[in-house]
Design goal:
The protein has 196 residues and is an alpha+beta fold. The protein is 61% helix and 15% strand. The protein contains 6 helices and 5 strands. The longest helix is centred in the C-terminal third of the chain and has 53 residues. The protein is elongated, with a radius of gyration of 35 Å.
């Protein structure tokens, strides 16, 4: 009976590890500098305040959870007292999530980020800093919109301006042609152009 209960508990923990390590777009693995109950509770509170979930899971189960997946590279991180961190809400703005994660890590004071994953890409500790400094999705969309609008505006200006200058050029050419035709008529016999 006790063995069956232990298997059920282990199965539930493995499911929790799979959900925590596979489902979120951004996942971080952090080493606990102090693993006593008050320090872990304080860390959980600091992360929860920033919308980040903290899971303390057995390393062996975490290695099993990522085995044969696109996040198998995480298995090398699971040694010692660790926590798995991920945002509670899905977002496409990894930069904002990294900012929250780093701020919460600073507030927690007893977690050191070791690495993690963004979708199927491996992240090292320094990569969270780079993500934090990356422009937000809103800023990227705005810059793309500007990049698309600017050539169109430039093209519209270029199309308007040549029409004015082309008109002036055509008038000047017509005036030149007109002077040439008049000179020919003048040479044929008559200053008044009557030919007569």
């Amino acid at each position: 009976m006790a063995a069956a209960a232990a298997r059920l508990r282990k199965g539930a923990l493995l499911d929790a590890a799979r959900r925590a390590l596979r489902e979120p777009s951004l996942v971080a693995v952090g080493a606990l500098l102090k693993a006593d109950v008050p320090a872990v509770r304080a860390a959980r509170d600091a992360y929860r305040a920033r919308g980040i979930r903290v899971k303390k899971l057995p390393n062996r189960l975490c290695r099993l959870a990522v085995a044969d997946t696109d996040r198998a590279f995480l298995a090398g991180l699971f040694a010692g007292d660790l926590v798995v961190l991920h945002p509670t809400e899905a977002s496409s703005d990894a930069g904002a999530q990294a900012r929250d994660l780093l701020a919460a890590t600073k507030d927690a004071g007893n977690v050191k980020l070791l690495g993690g994953a963004l979708d199927d890409a491996a992240l090292y500790a320094a990569d969270f800093e780079r993500l934090r400094d990356a422009p937000s999705l809103h800023e990227l969309r705005a810059s793309v919109a500007r990049a698309v609008r600017e050539p169109a505006a430039r093209a519209a200006r270029a199309l308007r301006q040549p029409s004015v200058s082309t008109g002036r050029l055509a008038k000047a050419q017509a005036a030149k042609v007109g002077r040439g035709v008049r000179a020919r008529f003048d040479g044929l016999g008559g200053d008044d152009g009557s030919g007569g």
